[in-house]
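Input record (Table S2, row 282):
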Amino acid sequence: PIVYLNGQFLPLDQAFVPVLDRGFVFGDGIYEVVPVYSRLAFRIEEHLHRLQHSLDGIRLDNPFSREQWIELIEELIARNDGEDQYLYLQLTRGVAKRDHAFPKEVTPTVFMMSSLLVHPPQALVETGVAAVSVVDNRWDRCDIKAISLLPNVLLRQTAVDHQAAEAVMFRDGILTEGSASNIFFVENGVIMAPPKDNHMLPGITYDLVLELADAHGMPYEIGKYDQERVRRADELWMTSSTREVLPITQLDGQPINNGKPGPLFKKMYALYQDYKAHVMRR
Ligand code: PMP
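Output record (4'-deoxy-4'-aminopyridoxal-5'-phosphate complex):
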């Protein structure tokens, strides 16, 4: 694969960052993940908007205009294999003598890479995935897509240790999100979702799901929901740019409802696939 690093396109195995990069030393940076379908970056305006929100959140100036980002992203896609890819974009506060406070002169490190997008296997869509519930022990700026992901890494490993695909987080007993996804549940025909506040990442897929619900007359409600309500849900879903919408059919070893993907999931999944196909045809 060909990657972009600080003004250059080069092979992945030739891309290096100095050890004093603040991303390496402090986790002082932010990132984005953008799916590419048929060589078109999906929802790119929304991703660039969230990138700006993350940069503002860590007080790092955006080195590029929207147009420059689009140009670089198009070149990265063109230089890599695969009709469907996913892009990883990362910016850090650059290289400086190790000191917690910001350096006086900042030259951000900008890194972008493309990987082949592996679509969620149909089997997962048809049977659903298992998840475990965990305590959300992260900081309170989860709206920033920060590269310092240690809590998410540890919680996801807890899920893997239990043969589960995702960790569903609860802060003070209230549903927030997954370790790398947003979480929805269904109660009496209504899609229920946590609010986009500082306790979760504002997912691009989260917004799209609610947009599709709006457009197709599927009722939804945003609120704070406790663990017992989630366990008793008729359906439980997870969403992310790379996993799209997937049903969670087991939580902590117990089935959600009858343990099968529900009717609203099937409807939303179909709407999502239609939307993708429609956008890519334009
Ligand atoms: N929450 C967290 C913590 C995530 O890492 C992700 C994946 N980027 C999401 C939610 C889902 O966001 P998106 O739909 O933009 O991929």
